Amino acid sequence: MTYFIDRRPNAKHKSAVNRQRFLERYRKHIKRSVEEAVNRRSITDMERGEKVSIPAKDISEPVFQHGPGGARNIVSPGNKEFVAGDKIRRPSGQGGGSGAGEGGASNQGEGVDEFAFTLSREEFLEFVFDGLELPHLQRKSLKSLEEVKMVRAGLSRDGVPSRISITRSMREAYARRIAMRAPIKRALREAIDALEAEERKDPVLRNPARIVELKAEIERLEKRIAGVPFIDTYDLRYHQLSAQPQPSNQAVMFCVMDVSGSMTQNHKDIAKRFFLLLYLFLEKHYEKVELVFVRHHTAAREVSEEEFFYSRETGGTIVSSALNLVNKIIEKRYPVGQWNLYVAQASDGDNWDDDSNICRDLLVKQLMPQLQYYAYVEITPHDHQSLWHEYESVVKEFPERFAMRQIVEAGDIYPVFRELFKRRLSQS
């Protein structure tokens, strides 16, 4: 018999390892339940976890038992209902099962409910965004003063006790003891040799005063050797730390939304959900990400998150005003050499016909050469208009960095989002 014992430490959460193994084992069932939950609930309700159920048959464990055949002696307990030779009635109910423990409930016995457990918020978001990433995230140049890492930078005689280098301090103490004791040991060896030589002399020629003097000298030298401290403050060495600039994976996401009169409240609600899902995605995967919110109708302006989602405006639609504003913000605040730039735009596709050509030129000549990715979602059940057709020419110019999809209803948000931000096998 072989026994396997897991002795790996797991101090705070004793069941954390087993929980991760369970989530990995039933990833298919859990992911299906998470996708159903995303389609069922509001995107604004994504902050909480989810209760997941797994069919009982899918969590059954293999059981080892004796196979048929062979001779076995079995002792069964007695009963008051049967005697030797009686035939046992077949259990009523559907066949093919393995007892009351399997299947649903009935009036003939007890059933087994599906195994249910609750995913935490972090685990829920992990399954929601599984396989997604911001495409073409690149490592930009060093960004001083903000992106630094404290690294060891040699040793010093001054420092705090928490940074003491025990190995180096002991090495320094050992070297000091050798250096301080060496001349004393040499003098001690000479005194011992002189005493032995004096004692080997003939008693007539031996000098008692010299012997007493040598013994006193030997005792003095031994005390000096014993007086050398094992470690001294002079021996202590401390690790020094210095701030070292690190390559930064910074990203900024521009959220552009049409708030003109053609955008109904339903369109705006769907756009809000898309950006909220995008915000959760960014928050989940990247620590150094900034969000810039740009609203537009005939004119565009940068607004706060609160105003972006909840303020109401009406008017016509000139999309180029928003693209021009995004370009100006990039030039002013986000140098291309330091930031990964992403734009997500939501619109119903309505735009002045003469302006759609301007939008195409702005994207091809100015914005796209600077951006890592541009995602455009058109929220409409109707046929595409001039803006969509002009954007199709941009897709031909930048097939890897420009993507566009159509959303008809709220249930399309999550599938479209996964398609826009699915993990690419290779990135430029």
Structure commentary:
The protein has 428 residues and is of the alpha/beta class. It folds into three domains: 14-59 and 116-128, no CATH class; 161-240; 251-420, Rossmann fold, CATH 3.40.50.410. It has eleven helices and ten strands. It has helices at residues 16-25, 27-40, 121-128, 166-199, 208-226, 265-285, 305-310, 319-333, 353-367, 386-397, 413-420; strands at 50-54, 115-119, 148-156, 238-245, 251-258, 289-296, 300-303, 340-347, 373-379, 402-407. The strands form three sheets. A six-stranded mixed beta sheet has the order 7-6-5-8-9-10, sandwiched between helices. A two-stranded antiparallel ribbon has the order 1-2. Strands 3-4 form a two-stranded antiparallel sheet. α9 (353-367) links the parallel β8 and β9. α4 (166-199) runs antiparallel to α5 (208-226) and α9 runs parallel beside α10. The two termini are 54 Å apart. The model is unreliable at 95-112 (pLDDT under 50). Residues 84-109 are annotated as: Disordered. InterPro entries: UPF0229 (IPR006698). Belongs to the UPF0229 family.
Structurally, how many domains make up the residues? 3
> Can you tell me the CATH class of the largest domain?
Alpha Beta
CATH architect. name of the largest domain: 3-Layer(aba) Sandwich
Mean pLDDT: 76
Question: What would you report as the Rg, rounded to the nearest angstrom?
Answer: 40 Å
Shape: flat
Query: What is the first-to-last residue Cα distance?
Result: 54 Å
Query: CATH superfamily membership of the largest domain, which one?
Result: von Willebrand factor, type A domain
* Helicity, as a percent range: 25-40%
Find the CATH topology of the largest domain. Answer: Rossmann fold
Q: From the helix content, strand content and strand pairing, which structural class follows? A: alpha/beta
User: What order do the SSEs take from the amino end to the carboxyl end, as H and E?
Assistant: HHEEHEHHEEHEEHHEHEHEH
Spatial order of the strands in the main sheet? 7-6-5-8-9-10
Largest sheet, if any?
A: 6 strands, mixed
Low-confidence stretches: 95-112
What's the β-strand tally? 10
How many individual helices? 11
